[in-house]
Amino acid sequence: MSATVTKKLWFGHLYLGIAISLPLLIIAASGTVLGFYDDLRYAALPYRLATPVYQSQDASALADAIRRHYPRHRLEVLFLQTAPERSARARLAGPEPLLVFVHPGTADILAVKGTADLDWLDWLRELHRGSVLGLPGKIAASAAGLGTLLLWLMGLWLWCRHTMTAKLHRRGASTYVKTIRIHRKAGLLLGGPITGLALLGALLNFAGPLMQWLDPPPAIVTPISTQQLMTLSLPRLVDAAVNGYHDSPLERIYFPATASQPWRFRFLDGSWGFVDGQNGTLLRLKTPSSHWTMLLYPLHSGKLPGIYGHWLLVLFGSALFFLVGSGLYHGWRIIKPR
After folding, report:
1. Residue among 10, 98, 85 nearest 49 (CA)
2. Which of 2, 21, 175, 187 would staple 191 via disulfide (CB 3.0–4.6 Å)?
């Protein structure tokens, strides 16, 4: 009975690996490149400035300059300068949604593009998430991530049984046996972290609804005015957010569309501050340690371990390539005579 179960698990491991091998390879390859997203994104104009700016204008001056240039658009998000060589930018809503690049020192408009015009790095990020195929693609990408958990669990069972390995030692060529031996050991040692990354990615694909359900942001229940979105100036609102959190610089500002929505301030370490635009009250502060959903992106992207975290993604991506390749080769050697 045990041998029968092991045989079924082996073929289940093989056929599941074949079924999800292509999406796993695409996700691994794109994820490895995206581990260097900041280095690639800010390598050229208009994201990178021709001359570094060490004294940036404040958020209010940048917002006013953008509104003067685009009075018929609504300012949605203002991305502040986070390094001297980086430009500021803004996402605008309107008849034609725009992404506007702003010089942080002079507030001049550097470049404009439509938010739907994806460059190769944007497209690669959408490919990694499966979003290029819409919701079905995101579901398929998340299902492939869940499939790695089943692969790893079945692989652990097969590793404990040793039945297939014993047969390979008797009939396999030495190079072939060594490859399978490395496959087993790599799956045992690195399969767990790879599975963890895949599960984090599966959850991160639907992080918005997940956070809305488990850790919803605060709302202004009774706004003072339904027409005027704020009674305080932007500098005072920024001060309210920054004074409430000193551990990381401010990275971006989300402007509310209605009076019942708070102002949202995102910090460089991924924390969020929610401020009432009517009275400047800090409604809530969400940090990476405040709820487990806040850790999904820092863990999956390798940002949590620090500046060398993206090299862990390279290691795990390379290991996944080897595991998929050697596993398919091993399966082909077994099922080909059949």
Report:
1. 85
2. 187
Distance of alpha carbon 260 from alpha carbon 263, whole angstroms: 10
Name all domains of the chain by residue range, CATH numbers in brackets: 216-290 (3.10.450)
Residues in the chain: 338
Which of 8, 15, 26, 23 minimizes the C-alpha distance to 328?
15
Encode pLDDT of 183-197 as tens digits: 888 888 899 999 999
Alpha-carbon distance of 3 to 167, in angstroms, equals 13
SS3 44: coil
Strand, helix or coil for residue 283: strand
The pLDDT tens digits of the residues spanning 22-60 come to: 999 999 999 999 999 999 999 999 999 999 999 999 999
Q: Are the beta carbons of 309 and 302 closer than 8 angstroms?
A: yes
Q: Return the percent helix, strand and coil in the chain, to nearest 5.
A: 55, 15, 30
Contact 249, 268 (CB under 8 A): yes
